[in-house]
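Sorry to interrupt, but I need a hand with the structure work. Please put the record directly below this note.
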Amino acid sequence: MLKFTPILLALAYAVIMYRFSVWRTTQELNRLSTELMDPMLIHMTNRLAAALDLPRIRVHIYEIDPINGLAAPDGRIFITRGFYRKFQSGDVNADELASVIAHELGHVALGHSRRRMIDFSGQNALRTALAMVLGRFIPFIGPWIAGTLTSLLAARLSRSDEYEADEYAAALLTKAGIGTEPQKSLFRKLDKLTQTGTGAAPAWLMSHPKTAARIGAIEQLEAKWG
């Protein structure tokens, strides 16, 4: 039993740290966000709500500059002030921003926030177990290898979540009569909008799939749906 104690402690630590992170994130979002009141975007969210048989969908603006969308652990949907500014300047249109909201709704509906707690706990335990095993055979380097392997696993799981949320968004946008073209056109813009690009690192090291792969997956859905 004693040999499993470090792994059990790693699991407990991961759960505690995840819950602390959720609490801290919630506090920051409460402090730095306001409800989105833009009439054009409310019209778009009402279309999404009607497709889901919901009375309305609340979206909040998170007062930070980076361009991003966010599904909070408590189920709230956010777009950043930086993203909203791109809409105001005309770099992003209402349909494209609706695709972001639909994507974040997918994360909520598919339970990705809850799953991340399980994944994070399991990865922490796996990292500890691998470090123990590899450390015996490869001193000093073993724990680094364990950390690298679990980071790769985390990135792969994150990419899987993104594909699932993309598929949910594609279905919702289609049902709402918006279609998937805004989703694809936004992907084509994102590298330029964020000024980061995706070519600097291999796809398997990224937490998000490459733009071309995401667009290709949506086009496969379109073909399947006819």
Observations:
- The beta strands are 33-35, 59-62, 69-71, 77-80.
